[in-house]
Amino acid sequence: MNSHLYTAASGLLAEKRRLELVSNNLANALTPGYRAQRAFTAVFERVGRGAPPFARAANAAVAVAGAYEKPGPGPLRETGRALDVALPEGILLVVETAKGKRYTRAGALGVNAAGELVDGGGRRVLGADGKPVSGLGSQAAIGPDGRLLEGEAERGRLALVRAGRGAVVPEGGNLLRAAREEDIESVAEAELKPGWLEASATDPLGELVELIEAQRAFETYQKLVSVAMNDVARKAVTEIAG
Amino acid sequence: MQRALWSAASGMQAQQLQIDTIANNLANVNTNGFKRSRAEFQDLLYQTVVAPGASSSSTTRHPAGIQLGLGAKPGAVKKLYSQGDMKKTDNPLDLAIQGAGFLKVLRPDGTIAYTRDGALTADRDGQLVTAQGYPLDPPITLPPDTLSVTVGADGTVSVTQPGQSAATEIGQIELASFVNPTGLLSLGGNLFSPTAASGDAVDGTPGLDGLGTLAQGFLEVSNVSIVSELVDMIAAQRAYELNSRAIRAADEMMQQVNNLVR
């Protein structure tokens, strides 16, 4: 008899998860290249398909079925720094980590003491030949075609990949991990914007609306639970049984 | 709900760091040779609830997973070594570096520090020193009867003395460059010292090997742009407010959970 209680409780859990996603989006409002995540909810049925329609409807539950990335790009802002680069939508840089190859959209690059190109976290950025780019110094700059220059001398070319929607998933530290390797392909050239950075794609207005929606829906489910428990169940116990 | 609280709190801490960085930039808007800093942020770890591509049945897969991010963290506060504007001072001992490079100064503990602030003066011995009184390295000493000083774009220092028609060359100002100037340690007092991240200093003559040239009678002012700092500050402040709104929402939702049972 408590199926309505479970349905309402499932709604509470789903809204809580939505709030968690919104919260993370807002926390990353200043993280370069960040993509906001949105939940999509689905109805799950707790009884088999053979059950009568009435029982199926009464035993439905709602849950967050998945999270998707809101498409970018985030707003571009000019920095004038020679090693900042904004990438076109879908294009990613390749960096070398202890766990293997990772991808990133955060284009605030730098040079380490050994003259190698590194990302914001100090991880080496790979060149088109699959090796870290070296020989850079205080005159290092990125060309709009992805070439790396030290003064006038060319020191290599950035490795660039094109990733389809959902082909990469965030891992933290501005790194992206391949989820579907087959949807990631190397590209020889892309139109880069050196001297620019892509800001976070978190849209404050959209997040706030999502936040209010999640909070109000949570209240509604809470009301359902309290009606189910406090009114219906209590009446059953005190009036019918009593 | 706890996750939402902590994510939003990490966001507020990140915005706070952004405000701190901006405040320091704005405080140094009139500091000679000052280079602005930029705070850079990263997303924190993700908790995977449903892995993307995991099987949803024997023949189908989840097209999208559920990964709950746990907030943001500061990745670096980077110094940006873009050229500051030149201010004409007409003081012959004011030097501005046009391009890359640092002046070398000898600190009292015997170590070398590096600076972009070329507001030099002569001490009582005629030695060229910075505002703190630290001498240049290699030292340049003006003769006591100096009438005028000329510093060439290539760093040669020459003086004219009474009774002489030609200028006498008395020294050469050197500049130093670093593979990664962003990795320098800020010591305060406009000074920097090398670290394992910056690489060792490479000494050279101004104008050669990619080093900048010297401009006498000019000072390099701070490269802080007030307008862009203020815009960043507004953005950080609003982001801070938004995160506090998320904390309030999480708090109110928890309160409702507590009120489920009366």
Our estimate of the beta-strand percent of chain A is: 25-35%
Average of pLDDT of chain A:
87
Number of strands of chain B: 19
List the strand order in the largest sheet of chain A: 6-5-12-15
Query: So how many helices of chain B?
Result: 2
Biggest chain pair contact, residues each? A-B, 68 and 73 residues
Order of strands, widest sheet of chain B: 15-16-8-7-14-17
Distance between the termini of chain A: 18 Å
Binned strand content of chain B: 25-35%
Structural class by helix and strand composition of chain A: alpha+beta
- Which parts of chain B are unreliable, with pLDDT below 50 for 5 consecutive residues or more? none
As a percent range, the share of helical residues of chain B equals 10-25%
What does this structure look like?
- The complex is a heterodimer of chains A (242) and B (262).
- Chain A has 242 residues and is of the alpha+beta class.
- Chain A contains three helices and 17 strands.
- Chain A has a four-stranded antiparallel sheet, with no helix packed on it. In chain A, strands 9-10-11 form a three-stranded antiparallel sheet, with no helix packed on it. Chain A has a two-stranded antiparallel sheet with strand order 1-2.
- In chain A, a hairpin with a 2-residue loop joins strand 13 and strand 14.
- With 262 residues, chain B is an alpha+beta fold.
- Chain B is elongated.
- In chain B, the strands form seven sheets. Chain B has a six-stranded antiparallel sheet with strand order 15-16-8-7-14-17, with no helix packed on it. In chain B, strands 11-12-13 form a three-stranded antiparallel sheet, with no helix packed on it.
- In chain B, helix 1 runs antiparallel to helix 2.
- Chain B starts with a helix and ends with a helix.
- The mean pLDDT of chain B is 90.
- In chain B, strand 11 and strand 12 form a beta hairpin.
